[in-house]
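Field reference: sequence -> structure
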Amino acid sequence: MRRKRWRCKSGQQPTEFDKRIMYLENKGALVPTPDLVKTPEQIEGIRKAGVVNTGVLDEVAKQIHAGMSTLEIDKICRDYCEQHGAIPACLNYEGFPMSVCTSINEVVCHGIPKAEDVLQEGDIINVDFTTILNGYYADASRMFIIGKTTPEKEQLVRVTKECLEIGMEAAKPWGFVNEVGRAIEKHARKYHYGVVRDLCGHGVGNNFHEEPEVCHFAQRKDGMLLVPGMVFTIEPMINMGTWGVFIDADDPYGWEVITEDEKPSAQWEHTLLMTEHGVEVLSY
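Structure field:
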């Protein structure tokens, strides 16, 4: 199916913003469709969802400790979300049974909270939560180190956060989305880490997942043009070993993603608004 071209609002003359996009499109650039550029009202709605989403992860940070189960983390997230008039986006999404993703050590992402998954001293865990507030979505994840861990795991968590920050710096207004992945992979390779290729960041805000795909590894093509008003996540998944992953055969829901060599993995994620001056963090 042929992709829709950029169109001005019905009955209006092209603005300088429209003209710039149409010029780049005529030069061969892949440009966003108009619905991917959020209105001020939509941005405000996403921003409010982001406040709740950040609050969820702040609450987890206050309470997370060795000896608690990931099922307890799910309750913390669900309760906070509901107390603030919001909905956990993950709950029942395409069969996902819980409100939050809790991914421990070699679990890359989409870990399902369970009573039997009890946090131990030295574990690293990613807690990934998405909020729906008044129809708007915000998405973020953080890494937590449980007690004292190994220097190797500490470095993985730190470097993965650096990868997110470097990816954010690479995301420029009127630049291209694949600059993000080039910058992230360059940094991760300094430590001989693998950058997961099977999963990516994404547009977000009016829906859980929108265009563009935000890959975290280097690609030849430029990808989509990033323009002010777009909202998306950057969420690098960095493995201590190979970038390869597999779905846990013992997971009855078919969600949990594990590193191919079963070495630890880390991930950090922010929801970001592209502005005329760079990205603004809406949820972290």
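Note: The chain has a mean pLDDT of 96.
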